[in-house]
Amino acid sequence: MISIQFSPVMIASIAFIIFLLVGFIVWAHRFWSTKFTLRGLTRKKMPVDDSDQPRLLAALNAWDLTFLGIGAIIGTGIFVLTGLAAATQAGPAVILSFVVSGIACAFAALAYAELSSSVGGCGSAYGYSYAAFGEFLAWIIGWDLLLEYGVSVAAVANGWSGYLYRGLHALGATIPEVLTRGPFAVDNMTGEATPGIINIAAVAIILLLMILLIVGIKQSARFNNIMVGVKLVTIGIFLAVATGHVDTANWHDFMPFGWFHVGDNGKPVGILAGASLVFFAYVGFDAVSTAVEEAKNPKRDVPIGILGSLVICTIIYIIVSAVLTGIVDYKTLGTSSPAADALEALGMKGAAAVVSTGVVMGLTAVMLVLYYGLTRIILSMSRDGLLPKMLGTVNPKTHTPVKTTIIAGVVMAVMAGFIPLGTLAELVNVGTLAAFVLVCIGVIVLRYTQPKMKRPFETPGGITVPILGAISCAALMCFLPGITLLRFVVWLVVGLVIYFEYSIRHSILAPRKG
């Protein structure tokens, strides 16, 4: 007989979900029973002349956009998830996990490149969905992207602060432990509560990036280029000192978990499960598509930035994962800093310190780009009336959305400072995959509904590539934990309530009285 024990947390979670569902049904019925029609959900917003809107400053070229993508992509994935996926899910075959995820992302990247050059706008997949599917699904994907970007920045800030505290400790500097974690912190190994007061460094870095983004996009891009340069040099140093220590014996059990099966602990393992985990390593290339309005030649430079950054990062991931699993036993890589720890295990403490410094720099660039992308998505949704108009204002001096940048920064700083985001970070993957699926489908829909639309960049192979992209990204979603999908559903329910209560009536496409 199967015995199920319900903990207080489980009971509270179930009650909260039921509350949200009931609330959504009540609100949905309210609008459906009035003058609500299906036509309102499918109204579409095609590319229009936004000359009457406050403009962002067009200051980015193809080089800036490529570095923008690299800055967002290379971060937590290469510095943390490579070792974790190798140790727990794929072994040395994590190399193939990166290949699988890279192929899925390549399909989606081609779709992004086509839509960014033809549909345009600063809202990324949100804007593309508005043109392909209509307002309702555009809201869903926009709400999804807010979760993806917001949680990503807060989660990376926590990782950044951990490396900073570790580096300061190595230098003999100490920070009171209560200022290194929030009041809801738990031990990652035992699950026991380890409360503090606030993760002060995580809060500080987000607020500093907020100031940088307020100053202006060109200054932010220059800072990002410097950080990316430092990050690439750091990776080069790691490869230079580690390659000579590669022992091919570490690759003999190349696929210890096979392609896919369920492990003894009930969790999925194998190359495909590893691919769904390391997919987080590719999160961020879509941030390039949020910079359409600030690109000097968007129809040419944005596709270059998207595809260029993805290709460069995939090659780097494959090389680094091969070297990392070659210098030590993959079973030892399940730490928060696998590259530095592996070098230290080989007796190269100086190189390990340099790599740790590079991690701090690299994660700074990741947060900057994701933060930037979040503000531009909010800006686009506000311009369309789906979010309050105040979020769509652009400062005439800095040409940046100052109010949005401040509000988003404060919210993310609170999240990073007080809330442990380890489990919530998994939501980033499911949200991103959902966005990629819709972008791929959007290419197919627009090929049939808008066949004469001007497409400066056209995805090769007809609709075959976007079909493969939709299928592969949807398949990767299936390998994520069930609890992650449940949390994603809860977030969507909250978004639906907001849409039916506010957005559907304030949309710029909504019929006006009189």
Kindly describe this structure.
- α3 packs across α13 and α4 (76-90) crosses α11.
- The longest helix is centred in the first third of the chain and has 36 residues, at 135-170.
- This protein has 514 residues and is mainly α.
- The radius of gyration is 23 Å and the shape is globular.
- Strands 1-2 form a two-stranded antiparallel sheet.
- It has one domain (59-506): Up-down Bundle (Amino acid/polyamine transporter I).
- The protein has helices at residues 8-32, 38-41, 62-73, 76-90, 94-118, 125-132, 135-170, 200-215, 217-242, 271-278, 298-327, 338-345, 349-383, 402-418, 426-449, 464-477, 482-506, and strands at residues 261-262, 268-269.
Number of strands: 2
Residue windows where pLDDT falls under 50 for at least 5 positions: 1-13, 48-52
- Numbering strands along the chain, what is their spatial order in the largest sheet? 1-2
Helical proportion, percent range: 55-70%
CATH architecture: Up-down Bundle
| CATH-level-4 superfamily name | Amino acid/polyamine transporter I
- What Rg is obtained from the alpha carbons, in whole angstroms? 23 Å
Using the alpha-carbon principal axes, give the shape. globular
- Mean pLDDT, all residues: 75
What distance lies between the first and last C-alpha atoms, to the nearest angstrom? 66 Å
Q: CATH topology, what is it called?
A: Amino acid/polyamine transporter I
Computed structural class: mainly alpha
Largest beta-sheet details: 2 strands, antiparallel
Number of helices: 17
